[in-house]
Amino acid sequence: MPYSAAHLAVVEKPLAEPAPAAEVVVLKFGSSILRDQSCAPAVASEVYGHVRAGRKVIAVVSALGGHTDRLLADARALGLDHENDLLPGYVALGEEKAAALVAIACDRIGLDAAALSVRELGIVAEGPSEHAHPVSLRSEAVRRALADHQVVVVPGFGAVGANGRVVLLGRGGSDLTAVFLAAELGLSRVRLVKDVDGLYDRDPASASGKPLRYRRASWDDARRHGGALVQHDAIDLGQSRSVDIEVAALGRADCTVVGDHSAPPGPSVPDAPLKVAIAGCGVVGGGLLQRLLKDSRFEVVGVLVRDPSKPRDVDAPASLFTSDREALLDLKPDILLEALSEGGAGHDLIRCALERGIDVASANKQAISRDPAGLADLARARGVRLAYSAAVGGGAPMIETLRAAKSAGPVKGFEAVLNGTVNFMLTRLQAGADFADALADARVAGFAEEDPSSDLEGRDSAAKVRLLAFEAFGRTPAEADVPCAILSEAFQPGGPVRQIGACFRDGEGLKASVSLDVGLDDPLFQSLDGERNALKVYGEDGRVWACKGRGAGRWPTTESVLADVADIVRARHASLGHH
């Protein structure tokens, strides 16, 4: 079967039980979320969280904020009025442009995404050209795209009329697109991501009284209080096709569920921005800083660097930067994002933060692999959370894949391509580049560190092997027990070559290594080019769990840390009793 970037898949060996199909979710993002092109990465983050959990996503998007009105104004300037059958085809270009943009944002972080046009999507509608009603779905293109990709981004609002021309589904019609797709695909729920965290008994922006939020709202409640929040045609369709409608905010687990049943509304206390400290401002730390400075859900309180006066590639206030670790922690952040380049300093900082009751998300494999069990025990003892998905595999969810495999039964072992820099260089070397040029290209691409010795000597991959071994077996082989092939000494030109990190049970012990596999015939590892990484986990029962994704670079790794942050935020909400 094909493997998709960062997709959790179960590949069965002969005679094993059939693998369950991946769950499909339909998410809709309106113009209040996609205000302009700078908002596309936040949408990609929301999608990534679902893919990381093993789901496939259909993302329905509206045009960017104000774009529909601009397209209408263009048409009117040429004398095209609302009765012209050519108008919908022009207006729907706004949604198609937004779909392509979101697919590009997904690709940047390593997701395997496709964008469809209105015609490719194949919703057939009847009625007035600007307020038609969907009646059928030519689902071949959607199902084929879902089979081949993790994420399928589609335009809302538009459909195809009986005469073959594009028609529109009325203002707010992207809601209707999403509900109709969920119904046609046999799903029981659809999630509409809005700029509010649910349905209220009155407009939250109104000054009259304190608005109350519904946890569950009936169809009639939604019609009565939904206003322009949810299109009424979408509510009607949800009721007639038994598709519950979730109304949620970006990055929030809680929502209003619109369906057959209702519950009395209650007060909703808006979250205060979470205080975040960042350690390191290199490839990953700089990416985190750039993303979080633009996110109103977070307040960046400080950034730990060696030299606060050094110029940065992120536009941030100079007052945020400090070289004093204790001063950073004295700011009492809610979450520390640790992205230092050095293992010892990172490990010490993580321990200090956990001791102080601060949640930690780390991208530092050298820091975590020093003592993952000790750090996990300390986090439990202090009642805080420690996450480190980005420390292994960049944007590929290797930790999640291993945990999913382990939850299904005992693990026999794993093998993986774990270093994006090395895989990028091997791709260039096999294409005929010499070693120095391949390394220079990796630096220019932003994959290789200033000192690449950890990558080239296999120590980076060895640290990741040790971390994955802890996840698989609850114990970590000693650093000296993971022999490593040095790239400059072991590479031989010829057939496909990959650096493979592996660890398997060996009697009562573990056998681990980082080696160069020459002429390998594994189709998953053969398919990797550039900075891509992949993992295969072998269960004792014969099942093989796999994932694949971009293993290096600012944006895939940043996205993995942000997904850990989202998990931490959800856990904090749960511990505080939020619903």
Q: How are the elements arranged and paired?
A:
Elements: E1 9-11, E2 24-29, H1 40-52, E3 56-61, H2 67-77, H3 87-91, H4 93-108, E4 113-115, H5 118-121, E5 123-126, E6 133-137, H6 140-148, E7 151-155, E8 158-160, E9 166-168, H7 173-184, E10 189-194, E11 212-213, E12 216-218, H8 219-225, H9 232-241, E13 244-249, E14 255-259, E15 266-267, E16 274-279, H10 283-292, E17 298-304, E18 321-322, H11 325-330, E19 335-338, H12 343-355, E20 359-362, H13 365-369, H14 372-382, E21 386-387, H15 398-408, E22 411-417, H16 420-430, H17 435-444, H18 453-456, H19 459-473, H20 487-490, E23 497-506, E24 509-518, H21 523-526, E25 532-539, E26 544-550, H22 554-575
Parallel strand pairs: 2-3, 2-10, 3-7, 4-7, 10-13, 12-14, 16-17, 16-19, 17-18, 19-20, 20-21
Antiparallel strand pairs: 1-26, 5-6, 8-9, 11-15, 13-14, 22-23, 22-25, 23-24, 25-26
Q: How would you summarize what this structure contains?
A:
The chain is α/β, with parallel strands linked by helices and 579 residues long.
Question: Overview of this structure, please?
Answer:
Helix 1 crosses helix 4, helix 10 crosses helix 22 and helix 16 packs across helix 17. The N terminus is likely disordered. The longest helix has 22 residues. Helix 12 links the parallel strand 19 and strand 20. 37% of the residues lie in helices and 22% in strands. The chain is globular and about 75 Å long. The chain has 22 helices and 26 strands. It has 579 residues and is of the alpha/beta class. 52% of the residues are buried. It has an eight-stranded mixed beta sheet with strand order 4-7-3-2-10-13-14-12, sandwiched between helices. Strands 1-26-25-22-23-24 form a six-stranded antiparallel beta sheet.
